[in-house]
From TrEMBL, chain A:
Protein name: ABC transporter ATP-binding protein
Cited InterPro entries: AAA+_ATPase, ABC_transporter-like_ATP-bd, ABC_transporter-like_CS, ABC_transpr_CbiO/EcfA_su, Co_trans_ATP-bd, ECF_ABC_transporter_ATP-bd, P-loop_NTPase
Origin superkingdom: Bacteria
NCBIfam families per UniProt: cbiO (TIGR01166)
Family the UniProt entry places it in: Belongs to the ABC transporter superfamily.
SUPFAM superfamilies reported in the protein's UniProt record: P-loop containing nucleoside triphosphate hydrolases
Species this chain originates from: uncultured Nocardioides sp
UniProt xrefs under Gene3D superfamilies: P-loop containing nucleotide triphosphate hydrolases
Entry's localization field: Cell membrane
Gene Ontology process terms (BP): cobalt ion transport
GO cellular component: ATP-binding cassette (ABC) transporter complex
Organismal lineage: Bacteria, Bacillati, Actinomycetota, Actinomycetes, Propionibacteriales
């Protein structure tokens, strides 16, 4: 099989205060896949995400992106390859206009001039926010800011897009619009979420992280319908939602 | 979490004052302030001239005085201090409205009030006619160190976010029967300000993480020149 886009092997990590968050995580994501990372609060999902682009350094084990190991000397390239969209768009959009915010990542990679403009507009086009390019981000609605946050990362042309709780705090319409956008993107996606219907809708495959280890890695439908697994790891479907009663999923 | 509600100081317009380059306006403001401060306190006609110049700029900018004057309440603490001066200063006494006050004190208070008000009104005029982002660009053109300009940029960007946080915290306090205005609840208010500080600090850390994730290496790329 080809080199996986994301390869995590035996990853373990303890915080400086001694609290151990990950106990040997193995995870492979191949090009073009959309994978949901599920798990209860405190399972170590965010800790895992912060390892993917070298913000945290593995205590043991390795992370590689398209064969390139996450190590100090590769950080710049790793951060281009792995685009993380954080949960609160206000953390991600910190400059005066949408254009500057989207340009920030590619400019850090040394992109300048016309090429920078092209990347900014292309990224904003992909999330349907091109008309807002000269607006200050704090004047946008929450859903719009989330979409711009996705664009800030797309402008870096990443090989894998990592989304932390993409549907949180969105109204149903914005939630669906974001799903349409994500489905339309031609990138590999790893999506951390508590929103199980959203995972089923968008990601054919799900990985369940619980207490710092991977406890399941299977088709999302099979994970969500495995009642025993779900109960054991504090995963619950919203009231009235039953994956068995959905006849067709959007592709 | 809602979107910001626009500008508290900026007054939208297209007058020549609005269109003038920000760095020229900044230089003009600083020059004007220095001139006002350097004017001896008893040259009354000169102060009248300063005010006339300022008012004519405001007239040209078409920002209504009704918009600027309420925003001058920011200087009220200084005015209170100025009011005290004639009562506590030494020197020959004069009688004003039947109260004995110090003559040099009176003059000092007059100078403080006039110079302060001229300065505040001039700054408000700049703020009303120039977008915050333009002010930053102007500072950059005046060769203000990039680090200071970017710190000010962050301040402008997060002012709404932090005041929004504070507003939600006070709403939550009010909903639980605490009135932040009453002195009895000031200790609670102080604690919540502490919490706000921690929150903002943590947000700063998250922003930094998000910046690192996009390849930030310690120097902000120059993005302000992009069209």
């Amino acid at each position: 099989m080809s080199v996986p886009t994301l390869e995590v092997r035996g990853l373990a990590y303890a915080y400086p205060d001694g609290h151990q968050a990950l106990f040997g995580v193995d995870l492979h994501v191949h090009a073009g896949e959309r994978v949901a990372l599920l798990g209860p609060n405190g399972a170590g999902k965010t800790t895992l995400v912060l390892h993917l682009n070298g913000i945290l350094t593995a205590g043991a084990g390795t992370v590689a992106v398209n064969g390139l190991p996450v190590a100090k000397k590769n950080l710049q390239e790793i951060r281009r390859r792995v685009g993380i969209v954080f949960q609160d768009p206000d953390d991600q959009l910190f400059l005066g206009t949408v254009r500057q915010d989207v340009a920030f990542g590619p400019a850090n990679l040394g992109v300048r001039g016309a090429e920078l403009d092209r990347r900014v507009m292309a990224a904003l086009d992909r999330v349907g926010m091109a008309d807002f390019v000269d607006r200050p981000p704090h004047h946008l609605s929450f859903g719009q800011r989330r979409r711009v946050a996705v664009a800030t990362v797309l402008a870096m042309e990443p090989e894998i897009l990592v989304l932390d709780e993409p549907s949180s705090n969105l109204d149903p319409a914005s939630r669906r619009e974001l799903a349409d956008i994500l489905r339309g993107l031609d990138v590999t996606v790893l999506m951390v979420t508590h929103d199980l219907p959203y995972a089923l809708e968008l990601c054919p495959r799900s990985v369940v992280l619980s207490d710092g280890v991977v406890v399941a890695d299977d088709a999302t439908y099979d994970v969500l319908t495995d009642d025993e697994l779900m109960r054991a790891h504090r995963l619950e479907l919203p009231f009235g939602f039953d994956p068995r009663r959905i006849d067709s999923l959007p592709r | 979490m809602g979107a910001g509600h626009g500008h508290r100081l900026h007054f939208h317009g297209h007058s020549p004052v609005h269109r003038a380059p920000a760095h020229l306006k900044l230089l003009a403001l600083v020059a004007f302030m220095l001139l006002v401060v350097a004017t001896p306190r008893d040259w009354y006609p000169v102060f009248a001239a300063h005010l006339a110049v300022l008012l004519s700029v405001i007239l040209v900018s078409r920002v209504p005085l009704r918009y600027l004057l309420p925003r001058m309440v920011i200087e009220v603490p200084f005015l209170l201090f100025a009011l005290l001066v004639p009562f506590v200063a030494h020197g020959p006494q004069v009688e004003v409205l039947g109260v004995e006050v110090s003559e040099p004190g009176l003059l000092a208070a007059f100078a403080l009030v006039v110079k302060g008000s001229l300065g505040v009104l001039a700054s408000l005029t700049l703020a009303a006619t120039t977008e915050p982002d333009e002010v930053l660009r102007g500072l950059q053109r005046l060769r203000m160190p990039a680090l200071i300009v970017s710190i000010m940029g962050f301040m402008v960007r997060y002012l709404d976010v932090v005041t929004g946080d504070l507003a939600r915290m006070t709403t939550a306090m009010r909903s639980r029967g605490c009135d932040p205005r009453s002195p009895r609840h000031w200790p609670t208010l102080a604690r919540s300000l502490g919490a706000l500080f921690i929150r903002s600090y943590e947000r700063g850390e998250r922003v930094h993480l998000a910046m690192l994730s996009r390849g930030y290496d310690g120097a902000l790329p120059d993005l302000r020149r992009t069209p």
